[in-house]
Amino acid sequence: MSQFFLPAMRQLVAIRLRSQGLSQSRIARLLGTTQASVSMYLSSGSAKADSALSRFSVSKADAELYSARLASAVSSGAAEGVGTLASIWTGILGSGAACGAHRTLYPGLADCDVCVRAYGGQAGAKARAVADVSEAVRLLESAASFVSVMPEVSVNLALAAGEATSPSDVVAIPGRIVKVRGRAKAMLPPEAGASAHMARVLLLARAVRPEFKACINLRYDDKVASVLKRFGLRVLSVGGRSRASTDDPTVEALRRRLESSPDAFDAVVDEGGNGIEPNLYLFASGAREVASLALRLAASYSAS
Description:
By secondary structure, this protein is an alpha+beta fold. The protein has helices spanning about 5-20, 25-30, 35-45, 45-55, 60-75, 80-95, 100-105, 115-120, 120-140, 195-210, 220-230, 250-260, 285-304, and strands at about 155-160, 170, 175-180, 185, 190, 215-220, 235-240, 265-270, 280-285.
């Protein structure tokens, strides 16, 4: 990884950032390298990087996609860049695409399948989901406007790992995302099985809309309702219950609503009730996508 993959990705990201108008010194700071190295990356073209990546069965189209993701991530911060890099690399390891290059360097690994077992299938899907949720959380933590749409019960973000079938297959934040000195802050790193409530909401929604992979809960009030209408999002409403009705009244109400009238929807509104705060549940195809949608809503909410 450090000998072939990382230098190649640094070069492609440097070329992409330069095309966006960034100076060599700025690119060097973002990539954690020297300006002389950036100058070398830019002057030598992408052929060497493409050749290095081909060792891992990374096509030119995939390389462009990876470099675009990394360029966006490092522009948001070093930690986000590392999270994105880890997500890309573990995906390559889990697919077995790095095995050929590794065995060429170390023939004694001819029978090794550690990376495929560790990062492939559902185990690999959970590792990638943790990295993706970490990246999404950093987006939320970096946005000052996000606290305006955080409910009193705090926020959680859930992501289905692979073909998730149970709450243990859904990655979320233990202890939730809370307000700390006027900013959002995750209490702990994401992990699988961290929120049975968010997992059950997401799994119910996925039964009707399989393209939904991620979910986030936000505050709900009249201003949020107006923003949802402006965004053209289809809302499914449940609510009007007492906290004592069931162990998870939101989940039970959503289940009954979907069974009786499974209309197309983009968001679920829990209107609350006696002892229950109203909440909005937004859905999207990924952790970063649902975080970006939440930030768009927060920006519109703060401006209105």
